[in-house]
Amino acid sequence: MISPPSPTHIFLLIFMIFATVQSQRNVSVGDSLYAGGDSAAWQSPSGDFAPFRTMNTSSFSQFGSTPSAVQNSKVELTMTGHLVLTDPGNNELWRSRSVTDDSRVSHAAMLDTGNFVITSESSGNIWETFKYPTDTILPTQELDVNGSLSSTLAETNYSNGRYQLRFDQGSLVLNQIDMFTKKPYNDYYPLGAGSRLIFNDSGYIQIQNSSGSPLNLAPANVIPRPGSNYYRATPTLGFDGVFTLYSFPRNPGNGGGSWSVVWSRPEDICRTFVDITATLGTGPCGYNSICETINGRPNCTCPPGFSFLDEKNPYTGCKQDYASYPEDCNPDGSTIETDQFEFEQMSFADFPYSDFGILHPATELECRHSCLLDCSCAVAILQDPSLSPDGTGTCWKKKLPLSNGWFNRDAIDRTALFKVLKSNASRKSPDTPQPSDENRNQAVLILSVLLGTSAIFNFLSFAAISSILFCLYRRKLRDVESIRSKRDIDTNLRSFTYKELEQATNGFKEELGRGAFGTVYKGELSEGDWPNSPQESGETTRICDEDEHRLLVYEFMANGYLSSFLFGKLRPSWKQRLQIASGIAKGLTYLHEECSTQTIHCDIKPQNILLDDNLTAKISDFGLAKLLINSKTQTLTGVRGTKGYVAPEWFRSTPVSIKVDVYSFGVMLLEIICCRKCVDFEMEEEEAILTEWAYDCYIDGMIEKFTEYDEEGRNDLGRLEMLLKVAFWCVQYEPLLRPSMRTVSMMLEGAVQVPSPPCPFPMNSISKIIV
Hints:
By secondary structure, this protein is an alpha+beta fold.
C-alpha cells in the first residue's frame, strides 16, 4: 500500500494566504478543484491554508519550488469517499486510501491547522492528510512509532531521499538510507528518547516518553513569541537531512516576511555523519565528495580531479575526471607512466575511511612518492609532523570510492594530496624514444616516397579491380532470377518472389490477423523451400522485395500469441508459464547484451510474444524497436509502447535505455503469474491496476490471492513469492533500481537470490500514472 503524499505534496505546497477569518467551507461529494485555478472554495476558515496554489512571492522561496501536479490537474471528492487527483488527460495520478468501515461520507474540509479531512455522516474522520506525513509536519500534527519523515531526492524530485527521521527502540533518530533497498543503515544520529513526536500549535516540538511526560526537543527559549508565528518542521530543505524548525510571522507588516530557521539538528551534519557512520554510508554529499558545514547546512564540493555526477544535484557525489585503465597498472600493482601524474593538495581536508595503506613515520615527499607509484592510490592524507604527538608524520593512502569526505579549518590538522592527470598528459609510454629533428626529417622524406609509390600502385589496382567487378556485375544481372531462388549455404536464408508467396498462400486467402503495419496470412511452402535446421527467432525470416511488394515470411507459430493463452479460457499450466517467462527473459537478454547492435524492443507485451508447438516463447513485432549507436546506452525518442506497459521515464523528457523493456517485462510477468490483464476497469476499483493491487497484496502477506484458481501455483508459494519480487524489482520507478535482463533471467532460474524489493512507486510524488 502506498502512503499518500503529505499536504506539502498532494496540495502543491500548502501555504498561508493571510485572508480574513471566514466561516468553514465544506467540500461536498462531487466537488472538484483545478490546479492553477481559484482555490477560495476549499480554503480553511481563516484563509491561512488552501490547496492547489502556486508561489508568487519571494517570501515563500524556502518552502519549496516545483509543484507535484501540472496546470489544470483536478482533485475531486468522489462518491466512494476518496480524494482523487487526475491530470488534464483524466489519467489518475493519486487517490487517498480506501474507506475501511461502513461509514457514509458526509463532506471534506480544509482545517485551520492545514489538515484536510474527509468526514463521515457520524462526524468521524474517514481520512486526513495529517495521518500520513512524508517530509513535513505542521503544528498539531504528531509522529509516532508507525510514522517517519523522509528527505526528498532532489529539489524537483519528491521521491524519498537519503535521510529518514523515525523512532527506533525508544529513540527519535536520524538515519541515512540505502537508496537501493530503502532500508536505514544501522548507525544513526539520536535526537532524544521517547515514542511520539508532538508539534504543538505554539511551535514547540516535544518528544513524549514512556511515562507520558513531554520533553522539548528544541530549548524553550528559541521559540520566538509563541502564537505569533506560523511554524513547520522538515528534513527536506536542501534534501540534506538536517531536521529544521522554521517560523514565519503571522503579521509581517508592510515589509513582508520570510521563513527563518528557529532550530535545527544536527548542528554540524558533516562531522556528525563522519562520527556516527563508521565505515558505512556515503556521507551527506555522496561518494568522492567533500562536505563542509556552512550555516548548519552541508556545502558539497568535488576535490581536484573530480566532477559532480549530476551538476543540478551536488548531493549525489562526484566521479573521477579520468578513469584508470588496465594498461595504467603493472602486474605488481605499480603505476605505469608515473610522469603523467601530479599532485594537487587541499589543507584541512580528510577522508576518515577508505584506507588501504599507512606509512609511519613519513615525510610529505615519501607520502607523495608512495601514492604516485601505487596504482590503487587516488589520494594520500598527510598529518603534519609538527602537530603529531610524537613529532613524526603519518601518511594514509586511500582508494576509490572515497567516503565521508570532510573539510573543517578548526577540526582537521591534515592535508589531502590528490593524484591527478597532468593537463598536457599524452598517455604515451615513457619507454617510447623521442626522435631527434634530423631523424624526424629523414622519416618524413621516407614516408613521402612510400606514400607516393603507394598512391600509384593503389590507382592501378583500383582500375583493374573495377574492370573485374564490372564484368562480374553484368554476369550477375543475367543470373539474378536463378540466384534469388537458391538458398545461401552460408546464411541458410532465401528470398521469395511475389508469385511464389501468392501460390503458397493460395492467393492470400487465409488471414491470421492484422497489425499496425499490415495483414498476416497463413501459407504452406514445399519442403525444399524451408531450412531443415532449427533457427533462433529472427533468423528464420525470409523476404520478398519486388517492386511495390514488400513481404516478410516467418515460421508459423502454431500456438499463436501469449495473450490468447493468458487471457483466454485455456491457459498454460503453472510450469508452462514459468517456462514462458524464462524464455522471454532470455530473449530480451539476447537483444540487450548479445546482439551486435544493442536493441530496445519498446513494446514488450503478451500480444507480441509468439508460442510454438512446444510453447517456446519467441519475441516478435519489432516495428517500434530502437537500435542504440555503438558505445551509447541511452537514446532520446518519442513515447513508444502500449498503455499499461510503458515505463514512467518515457514521459519525463529524458533519454531512455534498455530498462524500459525491463519495466514492460515486469508488468507482463505479473500478468503471467495472475493470468489477467495489467489494466482491467471491469474489476473492482482497488484491483483495476495490476501492479498496484499486486504490491498491496504482497506487502499485506496475501500472495495466495494470485493463485486462487491455480492448484499447482498454490503448492509452489516459495517460487510464487520469488516471481513477485522479481516483478516488483523490474517495475521500479527509478530505472537505475531495475536489474538487467541477464540478472532477471538468473533470478528466474534460481541462480541469483532475490532480495526484498522496495516500494516500486515513488513515495513522495504523485506519479502513479496509468499509461
